[in-house]
Amino acid sequence: MMKLLSKTTKPFLIFVMVVLAISIPVYYFVVDAIWKDELDEHNEIVAEKTSYEFNRMKISKEELQRNISLWNEIQPGTNIEKLPYNNLKKVVTFTTEKYKPFSADTKIERYRCLKKVIYIQNEPYLFSIETNIEETEKTVTIISVITLFFFVLIGAGLFILNRRLSRTIWTPFRSTLDKLKDFNLNSQTDIEFESTDIAEFEELNQSLRKMIAHNVSIYKTQKEFTENASHELQTPLAILKNKLDILMQDEDLTEKQYNIAEDMNRALARSSRINKNLLLLAKLDNSQFDNSETIQFDRLLHQSLEMFTEHFHQKNIIAGENISSNINVKGNKSLTEVLINNLILNAIRHTSSNGSIFITLTDSEFEVANSGAKSLKTDLLFKRFSKISTDNKGSGLGLSIINEICRFHHWEINYRFESNLHVFSVKM
């Protein structure tokens, strides 16, 4: 996972690299154009200077022709040629490539050329001059090296700034994050965030303070409700059940009245189970359990299997087991018992008569498998009050409680259907 500053710095570096890469050919063409313009101006000056010097000499035409011939022989890259009046040419500038004259070097080089008509002693002459422009490539090479140097400098600077900013500017944010990680609703203590001169971080801290205060208030209310409901709801339910038991023992009850009372008793028992399960879920949501006990998982599992032996016999279920010994885990013993009982009871309830149940326990996984015909709907499997079968005896909270207990212990519950078996596995 990439840090925020790195995430913003990377696109910036890429942008700078692209811009600098584009700048190199731009530098080349711009410098080359400027160089050519300067050379054209230089060639113009040389042509005017040559015309001026010849006119200033005040010599005869024969002497002039001898000097021009001498000039053409000893002055490399220039030529003065007599023109008739009917063949005057315009000023022409162009670039040509050729081998360097008077040199053994076979490298082809570029030259900037000028052809211009000058007047010497009022006679037209075609003045030609060629000037080497290979210095442009050297200039561009130097610019490219300098550009690369500055790119490296920018990259190193951004890297150093990124590290320093991470240690200084982001210190209040990291402090806030660490305190949020350590915050526990059970402690119900306010968090004191460090003061900062960065407006965004201070605004974040203010929002977090309000949110935490609101959540602590809600948590207290929920906890009070859980405690009150545990006492207030269970008592009238127990009284009603007791009264119904007494009523059902009355010898004066008719068969119809007894059936009605029995239906009421079953509904009341189901309501009591739902109430207990909802209270358990509320306590789990509020983290009202200790999870630091050392639990002998294999012993709890054997105790549960003994308790459900009669259920296996009633439905003629074949129970197979592969339970490793001395399996100890950290957690809450009572919740672990609920987890084991709910998984086994769920398997019994949804296994047809003459079916089979297989229970496996290793040092890292607890697995309950029962025979079945088709796979269950996984999207509704662990939702509260969802029905995975047509059986109405359950509360619809068993698998949801199992899921919450696993979440509380940081275990992982999974379901799969294979070889006509429903398999629930808990990875510990």
Automatic annotation (TrEMBL):
Keywords: Kinase, Membrane, Phosphoprotein, Transferase, Transmembrane, Transmembrane helix. Gene3D superfamilies: 1.10.287.130, Histidine kinase-like ATPase, C-terminal domain. Pfam families: HATPase_c, HisKA. PANTHER family: SENSOR HISTIDINE KINASE TRCS, SENSOR HISTIDINE KINASE YKOH. GO terms for molecular function: phosphorelay sensor kinase activity. The chain crosses the membrane at residues 12-30, 140-161. It catalyses: ATP + protein L-histidine = ADP + protein N-phospho-L-histidine. PROSITE patterns: HIS_KIN (PS50109). It comes from Chryseobacterium aquaticum. Residues 228-428 form the Histidine kinase domain. This is histidine kinase. One of its GO terms (cellular component) is plasma membrane. Its EC number is 2.7.13.3. The keyword Ribonucleoprotein does not apply.
